[in-house]
C-alpha cells in the first residue's frame, strides 16, 4: 500500500515536470537528421544539439544527454560527446523497421526530460523488377505485370514506362494496392513495336527492370468466338456442323482454333485435332459422331502463329445428330402365366433399346408369330409387351424395333409346344459382387445356346419377387446385372439358356450386391432349462433383416456378475445347448448373427437355472415315501402276523370276570386277610402294573439281559402311569377290553360274598370297535378266588422247574417274593421284565398246563398252596399281575360255566392267549 | 560454270546480307508496316463512318462523292499506275513518309474540332496509330539506309480554319481529309506489299543474280 502510494506520487511529479518543460522542448535542442531513412542492417549516427538557454536553465551540457530508442535507454558506450552542446549516438545493425529515437537530458543531474524525438524509417532499396510481361486483351488497354522482388518495408513506387522508337508514352504508375501490375492509359497500337520497362523507386534507391520490346499484336488475347451454333445433317447421322462468328481482331490477324466436344452426359471433353483448325474460319464439321446423340461444343481462338494468348472458351452450344436405323435387335423373352383350360396365354416381353442402340425415337415394335407351317400373324405394338393366346403348338416369334429411319434386325424366339420338356441347364452358376456391380458367371451347357436370359428379383418376406431381366448372347458366360440394384438386399438370380427349340432348364442362385450387418439380431429363448444346462433356441432371421448371408451365430452368456462367455454356432442351427451351467443362477444370454460384414446383437434374455434338476425332488421324495410306506406295511404285516405274540406283551391277559368261577380251595387254606389289607394299602398307589416285587442284588448281575428289557418296560410304564391306572397299558394292540380300576377290583374282591351281578362295564368302544356290554356275575367267594386261580400257575411253574433249567431262577424268585415284603417300586420293574421275557414261555407252558392239569391237580400238595398264598399279595401290587389274575379267573370261570360243577381250583382250559377280546 | 556456282555457294554464308540468322533485315519491318497499313485501313473505316455521321448528311451518305475543292494542300495519293510502278524504293518510302506527316497534322486539327469525347478518343487513337505508321516507315527507311526527308521550312502544314471557310466547306475539307487518308492507306498497303515481295525471296534473287553473273 505504501509502495503504491509512493509510486503514484512519483508519477505525478514526473507528469508535472514534463508538463512544465513541454513549452521549453522546442527551444531546448534538436536531433539531426530529422527524418532519417536507414538501410536495414546498417549503422546510423544521430546528433543531439542543445541550446545555450536550456543548458543554463537546467544546468546541463552534452554529457547530460541520454538517448532512448523505442523508450529503451541506449547504453552510454554508444554516446559520443562531441562538444559541450552536442552529443551523438551510433546505432548499429538496425533491423527494426520503425524506430523512435529520443534525446533526453538529465536536468539538474537527475530529472529526465525529453528534448527531441525523431522517427527513423528502416528498410531496403527496391530490387530490380523481374518477369515483366504484358497482355493485350482485345478491345482493352495493355496490362503489364512484374515480380517486384524483396519487400522493402518502405514506400516504393513502381512506374511502367513505354516508348516507341520515335515517341514516348505517358508513364503508368502502379497503384499502391497493386504494386505488381499496371494498365497503360492509351490504346495499344498493333504492328508497332513498343519498348516497356519498370522502374521501382523508394527513399533508399531506384531499380529498373530489363527492357522488353514487342509488338502488342503478339501479346493479344482475342475475344472468344461467339454465336456458336450446331446443325445436323439428315444425310449423315454421324456429323454435326458448327458455325460461329469470329472476334473483330480477325480483321487484322489470322486465328487458329481449339474445338472441344462431348456427349451431353459425358464429363470429359474431346478435342478436334488442332491441325484441322489452324486458319481463320467460321465453321467446322465434326465427324464420327453417334447417331441421335446430343453433343456439346465449345471453341476458343488465338493468333495463328501462336504468339499471344488463347481466348477464353466460347459459350457452350449443343446439337443432336440425326437418327439412324436401330443398330441392334431388342432383347426378347416370354412368360407363360398359369395355364388356363383350352388356349395358352403367352406374354411376350422385350426391352426398350438403350439410346445408343435405338439410334432414334422408337416409334413402334413389329411382332410376328408363326405357328408351325401356317400363316404368320403380325402385330404392331407401342408398348414393350404383348399377350397372345396360342394353341399348344410350337411358335416362332420375331420382334423388330422401328424408328423414323428404319427397322432393327429381328429377334427370334421359339415358344415351344405345351409338352416340351426343358433340359440342359447351365452349370456352376455363381453370382458375386465386384466393382459395385453384381456379376453372374456360369458354365455353358453342352448344347449350342442362342441366348441367355438372366432374371433377378429381391427376395423379401414382405413383398413379392418382382423379376427384372436381361438378355445375353449365346457366347457370353459372364455378365453383370444391368439394373438398379440396392445394397443389403438378397437377389435371387435365375439364368435360363435359350435353345433353338425352346428354353432350357433355369438355374438359380442368391447373391448380395453388398452385404452389411443384420439390422436385427436373433431373438434367443430357452427351450428347456435344466439344473446345469439350458437348451437355447431361436428362429432364423427373416431375409429382410439379414442384409447378407448369415455365416454364424455367437451366443454370449454370463451370470449377473460373472464373465461373459461366447460360443460360436454354425448358421444352420436353430438351437444350442449350454452346458456346465451353475444351478440356481440367473443367466443373461444374447445372440449375435454375423454376415460377412458384421454382426448384430439380439435382445438379451435371462433365465434362471433351477436348484434341482427336473425329477430330482421326485427321485428323492418318492423312494423315501415308498420306503416309508413299505416299512409301515411290513410293520403292520409283522404286527398282524405276530399280533398274538405282541398282544401278549402289550396287553396282559385280563381274565373275564363273566367267565370266572369260583375255585375250590381247601378249608385249610390260610386266611389271607392280612395280605388283602396289604393289598388295599398298595392298591391305592400307582403301582398298577407291578406284579412281582423283589430281586436279590446278586441276581441283578446274573441277568443283564433282563435288565435291558426292564429298561424298555420302564419307559413303557412311565407312559402308562401318566394316563391310566387301569388294567394293562395302552399300546397299539390295546383291546377294547374295559379297564377296571384297581379300586373297583379291590372292591369286587372284597365283595365276593354277594351273589348279585358283579358288575356291568359299559364303554364307548375303543378305536371304533363295537363295545359290548359285559355282565359280570358276582362271585360267591371273596378272596379265595384269586388263590384258586393262581394255583395252577404255580403248579405249572413247578412242572417247569422239573422239565427245564431256564425257569428255575424265576421260580425261586417267586418263592423268595413270598417270604419277603415288597416295598420298592424298582423291584417291580425287574419283575415286569421277567414277565416280558418269559411271556412266550408262559404261552407254551399254558398249553402243557392244559394237557397235564388233570394229572397234576390231584397231586398238588399243601406246599404248593403255601407258595400261592404269597402270589395274591403280589397281585395286589399291580394291575399287570391282576391282569394275569383276571385271566386265570376267566379260565376259572369258564371252567365253572362249562363244567357246571365246582371242582378243585385247577383251571384246565386255558385257551391260547388266555385273554378274550370281545 | 559449276565451279563458279560452287565457289559462290561456298562463300554464301559469309555474305552478310544473306546471313538469315543475324540481322533480320528490313523484311520483318516491311511486313509489319504492311500489316499496320491494313490495320489502320480497318481502323479508319470505322472511324470515318463515325466521323461522317457526326458531320451529318450529305457526308454520311454512301453515294456522296463531291468534287475535290479547297483541299489542295492535302497530299494526293492517286497517281498514274506507270508512274507508281516506276517509283524506286527510296522515293516510294519518302512519298509515304511525307504524305503521312502532313495527313497526321491535319488529323490532329480534326481531333481538336471533334465534339464528342468518344470521337475525340477514336481520333486520338488513330493519330497515335498513324504516328506509329510514320515511325514504322522511318524504321524501314533506316533499315534500308535511306535518310528521312527533312520537312521544308514554311511548308509545315497547318490546320488553321480561316473565317473564309464556311461550315459546309469546313466539313468538306474534313471529308476529303478522311477520304485522302483512306486512299493513302490503300496505296501504302500496295507499296509495302510490293516492297515486301521485293524483299521476301532473297534466295531467288541470289539465283537470279548468279545467273546474271554467269552471263
Automatic annotation (TrEMBL), chain A:
SMART domains: FN3
Biased composition (Low complexity): 730-743
Gene3D superfamilies per UniProt: Immunoglobulins
Biased composition (Polar residues): 773-785, 817-839
Keywords carried by this UniProt record: Cell membrane, Disulfide bond, Glycoprotein, Immunoglobulin domain, Membrane, Phosphoprotein, Receptor, Repeat, Signal, Transmembrane, Transmembrane helix
Signal peptide: 1-22
UniProt xrefs under SUPFAM superfamilies: Fibronectin type III (SSF49265)
Membrane topology: Single-pass type I membrane protein
Keyword presence, Nucleotide-binding: no
Major place of residence: membrane
Compartment annotation: Cell membrane
Chain intervals for the UniProt region annotation (Disordered): 659-680, 720-756, 773-792, 817-842
Transmembrane segments: 620-640
InterPro entries found in the cross-reference section: FN3_dom (IPR003961), FN3_sf (IPR036116), Hematopoietin_rcpt_Gp130_CS (IPR003529), Ig-like_fold (IPR013783), IgC2-like_lig-bd (IPR010457), Type-I_Cytokine_Rcpt (IPR050379)
Span of domain Fibronectin type-III: 224-324, 329-426, 518-612
Gene Ontology molecular function terms on file: cytokine binding; cytokine receptor activity
UniProt entry tagged with the keyword Glycoprotein: yes
GO cellular component, one term: receptor complex
Pfam entry (one): fn3
Swiss-Prot/TrEMBL GO biological process terms: interleukin-6-mediated signaling pathway
Subunit structure and binding partners: Component of a hexamer of two molecules each of IL6, IL6R and IL6ST; associates with the complex IL6:IL6R but does not interact with IL6. Forms heterodimers composed of LIFR and IL6ST (type I OSM receptor) which are activated by LIF and OSM. Also forms heterodimers composed of OSMR and IL6ST (type II receptor) which are activated by OSM but not by LIF. Interacts with HCK. Interacts with INPP5D/SHIP1. Interacts with SRC and YES.
Family statement drawn from the similarity comment of this UniProt entry: Belongs to the type I cytokine receptor family. Type 2 subfamily.
Name assigned to this protein: Interleukin-6 receptor subunit beta
Automatic annotation (TrEMBL), chain B:
Keyword Secreted included in the entry's annotation: yes
Intracellular or extracellular location(s): Secreted
Assembly information from the UniProt record: Forms a heteromeric complex with cardiotrophin-like cytokine CRLF1/CLF-1; the CRLF1-CLCF1 complex is a ligand for the ciliary neurotrophic factor receptor/CNTFR. The CRLF1-CLCF1 heterodimer binds SORL1 (via N-terminal ectodomain); within this complex, the interaction is mediated predominantly by the CRLF1 moiety. The tripartite signaling complex formed by CRLF1, CLCF1 and CNTFR also binds SORL1.
GO MF annotation list: cytokine activity
Family, similarity comment: Belongs to the IL-6 superfamily.
Main location group: secreted
Region forming the signal peptide: 1-17
Protein name: Cardiotrophin-like cytokine factor 1
Keyword field: Cytokine, Glycoprotein, Secreted, Signal
GO cellular component: CNTFR-CLCF1 complex; CRLF-CLCF1 complex; extracellular space
Cited function: In complex with CRLF1, forms a heterodimeric neurotropic cytokine that plays a crucial role during neuronal development. Also stimulates B-cells. Binds to and activates the ILST/gp130 receptor.
A Gene Ontology biological process term: cell surface receptor signaling pathway via JAK-STAT
Protein species of origin: Fukomys damarensis (Damaraland mole rat)
InterPro entries: 4_helix_cytokine-like_core, PRF/CT
Amino acid at each position: 500500500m505504501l509502495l503504491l502510494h509512493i509510486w503514484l506520487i512519483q508519477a505525478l511529479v514526473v507528469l508535472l515536470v514534463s508538463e512544465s518543460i513541454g513549452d521549453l522542448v522546442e527551444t531546448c535542442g534538436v536531433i539531426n537528421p530529422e527524418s532519417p531513412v536507414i538501410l536495414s542492417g546498417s549503422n546510423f549516427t544521430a546528433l543531439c544539439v542543445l541550446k545555450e538557454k536550456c543548458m543554463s536553465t537546467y544546468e546541463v551540457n552534452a554529457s547530460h544527454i541520454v538517448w532512448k530508442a523505442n523508450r529503451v535507454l541506449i547504453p552510454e558506450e554508444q554516446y559520443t560527446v562531441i562538444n559541450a552542446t552536442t552529443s551523438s549516438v551510433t546505432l548499429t545493425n538496425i533491423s527494426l523497421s520503425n524506430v523512435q529515437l529520443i534525446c533526453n537530458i538529465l536536468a539538474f543531474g537527475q530529472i529526465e526530460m525529453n528534448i527531441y524525438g525523431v522517427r527513423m524509417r528502416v528498410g531496403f532499396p527496391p530490387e530490380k523488377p523481374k518477369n515483366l510481361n504484358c497482355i493485350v486483351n482485345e478491345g482493352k488497354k495493355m496490362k503489364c505485370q512484374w515480380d517486384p522482388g524483396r519487400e522493402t518495408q518502405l514506400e516504393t513506387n513502381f512506374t511502367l514506362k513505354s516508348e516507341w522508337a520515335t515517341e514516348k508514352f505517358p508513364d503508368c504508375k502502379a497503384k499502391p494496392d497493386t504494386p505488381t501490375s499496371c494498365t497503360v492509359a492509351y490504346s495499344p497500337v498493333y504492328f508497332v513495336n513498343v519498348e516497356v520497362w519498370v522502374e521501382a523507386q523508394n527513399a533508399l534507391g531506384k531499380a529498373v527492370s530489363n527492357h522488353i520490346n514487342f509488338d502488342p499484336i503478339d501479346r493479344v488475347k482475342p475475344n472468344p468466338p461467339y454465336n456458336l451454333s450446331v446443325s445436323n445433317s439428315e444425310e449423315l447421322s454421324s456429323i454435326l456442323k458448327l458455325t460461329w462468328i469470329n472476334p473483330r481482331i480477325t480483321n487484322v490477324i489470322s486465328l487458329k482454333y481449339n474445338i472441344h466436344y462431348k456427349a451431353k452426359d459425358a464429363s470429359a471433353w474431346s478435342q478436334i485435332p488442332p491441325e484441322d483448325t489452324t486458319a481463320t474460319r467460321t465453321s467446322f464439321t465434326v465427324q464420327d459422331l453417334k447417331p441421335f446423340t446430343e453433343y456439346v461444343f465449345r471453341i476458343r481462338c488465338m493468333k495463328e502463329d501462336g504468339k499471344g494468348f488463347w481466348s477464353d472458351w466460347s459459350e457452350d452450344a449443343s446439337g443432336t445428330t440425326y437418327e439412324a436405323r436401330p443398330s441392334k435387335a431388342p432383347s426378347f423373352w416370354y412368360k407363360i402365366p398359369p395355364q388356363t383350360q383350352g388356349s395358352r396365354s403367352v406374354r411376350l416381353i422385350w426391352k426398350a433399346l438403350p439410346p445408343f442402340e435405338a439410334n432414334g425415337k422408337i416409334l413402334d415394335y413389329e411382332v410376328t408369330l408363326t405357328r408351325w407351317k401356317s400363316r404368320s400373324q403380325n402385330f404392331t405394338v407401342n408398348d414393350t409387351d404383348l399377350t397372345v393366346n396360342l394353341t399348344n403348338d410350337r411358335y416362332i416369334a420375331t420382334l423388330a424395333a422401328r424408328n423414323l429411319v428404319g427397322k432393327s434386325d429381328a429377334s427370334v424366339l421359339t415358344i415351344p409346344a405345351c409338352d416340351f420338356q426343358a433340359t440342359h441347364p447351365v452349370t456352376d452358376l455363381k453370382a458375386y459382387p465386384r466393382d459395385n456391380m453384381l456379376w453372374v458367371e456360369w458354365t455353358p451347357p453342352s448344347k449350342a445356346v442362342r441366348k441367355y436370359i438372366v432374371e433377378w428379383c429381391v427376395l423379401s418376406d414382405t413383398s413379392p419377387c418382382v423379376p427384372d431381366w436381361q438378355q445375353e448372347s449365346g457366347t457370353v458366360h459372364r455378365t453383370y446385372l444391368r439394373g438398379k440394384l440396392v445394397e443389403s438386399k438378397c437377389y435371387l438370380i435365375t439364368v435360363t439358356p435359350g435353345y433353338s427349340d425352346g428354353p432350357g432348364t433355369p438355374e438359380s442362385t442368391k447373391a448380395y450386391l453388398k452385404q452389411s450387418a443384420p439390422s436385427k439380431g436373433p431373438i434367443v429363448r430357452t427351450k428347456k432349462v435344466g439344473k446345469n444346462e439350458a437348451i437355447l433356441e431361436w428362429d432364423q432371421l427373416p431375409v429382410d433383416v439379414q442384409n447378407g448371408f448369415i455365416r454364424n451365430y455367437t451366443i454370449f452368456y454370463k451370470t449377473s456378475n460373472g464373465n461373459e462367455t461366447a460360443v460360436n454356432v454354425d448358421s444352420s442351427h436353430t438351437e444350442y445347448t449350454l452346458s456346465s451351467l451353475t444351478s440356481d443362477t440367473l443367466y443373461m444370454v444374447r445372440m449375435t448373427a454375423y454376415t460377412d460384414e458384421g454382426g448384430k446383437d439380439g435382445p438379451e434374455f435371462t433365465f434362471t437355472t433351477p436348484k434341482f434338476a427336473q425329477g430330482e425332488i421326485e427321485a428323492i421324495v418318492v423312494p423315501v415315501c415308498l420306503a416309508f410306506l413299505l416299512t409301515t406295511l411290513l410293520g403292520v404285516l409283522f404286527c398282524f402276523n405276530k399280533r398274538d405274540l405282541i398282544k401278549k406283551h402289550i396287553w396282559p391277559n385280563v381274565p373275564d370276570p363273566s367267565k370266572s368261577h369260583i375255585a375250590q380251595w381247601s378249608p385249610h387254606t390260610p386266611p389271607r386277610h392280612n395280605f388283602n389289607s396289604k393289598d388295599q394299602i398298595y392298591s391305592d398307589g400307582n403301582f398298577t402294573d407291578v406284579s412281582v416285587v423283589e430281586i436279590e442284588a446278586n441276581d441283578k448281575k446274573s441277568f443283564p439281559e433282563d435288565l435291558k428289557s426292564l429298561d424298555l418296560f420302564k419307559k413303557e410304564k412311565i407312559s402308562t402311569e401318566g394316563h391310566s391306572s387301569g388294567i394293562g397299558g395302552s399300546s397299539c394292540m390295546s383291546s377294547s377290553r374295559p379297564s377296571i380300576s384297581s379300586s373297583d377290583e379291590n372292591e369286587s374282591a372284597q365283595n365276593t360274598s354277594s351273589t348279585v351281578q358283579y358288575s356291568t362295564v359299559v364303554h364307548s368302544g375303543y378305536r371304533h370297535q363295537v363295545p359290548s356290554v359285559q355282565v359280570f356275575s358276582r362271585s360267591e367267594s371273596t378272596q379265595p378266588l384269586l388263590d384258586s386261580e393262581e394255583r395252577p400257575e404255580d403248579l405249572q411253574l413247578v412242572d417247569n422247574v422239573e422239565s427245564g433249567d431256564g425257569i428255575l431262577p424265576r421260580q425261586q424268585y417267586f418263592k423268595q417274593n413270598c417270604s419277603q415284603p415288597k416295598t420298592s417300586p424298582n423291584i417291580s420293574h425287574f419283575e415286569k421284565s421277567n414277565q416280558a421275557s418269559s411271556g412266550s414261555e408262559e404261552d407254551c407252558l399254558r398249553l402243557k398246563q392244559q394237557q397235564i392239569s388233570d394229572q397234576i391237580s390231584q397231586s398238588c400238595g399243601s406246599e404248593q398252596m403255601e407258595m400261592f398264598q404269597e402270589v395274591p399279595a403280589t397281585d395286589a401290587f399291580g394291575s399287570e399281575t391282576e391282569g394275569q389274575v383276571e385271566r386265570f379267573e376267566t379260565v376259572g370261570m369258564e371252567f365253572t360255566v362249562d363244567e357246571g360243577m365246582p371242582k378243585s381250583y385247577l383251571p384246565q382250559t386255558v385257551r391260547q392267549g388266555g385273554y378274550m377280546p370281545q | 560454270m559449276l565451279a563458279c556456282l560452287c565457289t559462290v555457294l561456298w562463300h554464301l554464308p559469309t555474305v552478310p546480307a544473306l546471313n538469315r540468322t543475324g540481322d533480320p533485315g528490313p523484311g520483318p519491318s516491311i511486313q509489319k508496316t504492311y500489316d499496320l497499313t491494313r490495320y489502320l485501313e480497318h481502323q479508319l473505316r470505322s472511324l470515318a463512318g463515325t466521323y461522317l455521321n457526326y458531320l451529318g448528311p450529305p457526308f454520311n451518305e454512301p453515294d456522296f462523292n463531291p468534287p475535290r475543292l479547297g483541299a489542295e494542300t492535302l497530299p494526293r495519293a492517286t497517281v498514274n499506275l506507270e508512274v507508281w510502278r516506276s517509283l524506286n524504293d527510296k522515293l516510294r518510302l519518302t512519298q509515304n513518309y511525307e504524305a503521312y506527316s502532313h495527313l497526321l497534322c491535319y488529323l490532329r486539327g480534326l481531333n481538336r474540332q471533334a465534339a464528342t469525347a468518344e470521337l475525340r478518343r477514336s481520333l486520338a487513337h488513330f493519330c497515335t496509330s498513324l504516328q506509329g505508321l510514320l515511325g514504322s516507315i522511318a524504321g524501314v527507311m533506316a533499315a534500308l539506309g535511306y535518310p528521312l526527308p527533312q520537312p521544308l521550312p514554311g511548308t509545315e502544314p497547318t490546320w488553321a480554319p480561316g473565317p473564309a471557310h464556311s461550315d459546309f466547306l469546313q466539313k468538306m475539307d474534313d471529308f476529303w481529309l478522311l477520304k485522302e487518308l483512306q486512299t493513302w492507306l490503300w496505296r501504302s498497303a500496295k507499296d509495302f506489299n510490293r516492297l515486301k515481295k521485293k524483299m521476301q525471296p532473297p534466295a531467288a534473287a541470289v539465283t537470279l543474280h548468279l545467273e546474271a553473273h554467269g552471263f
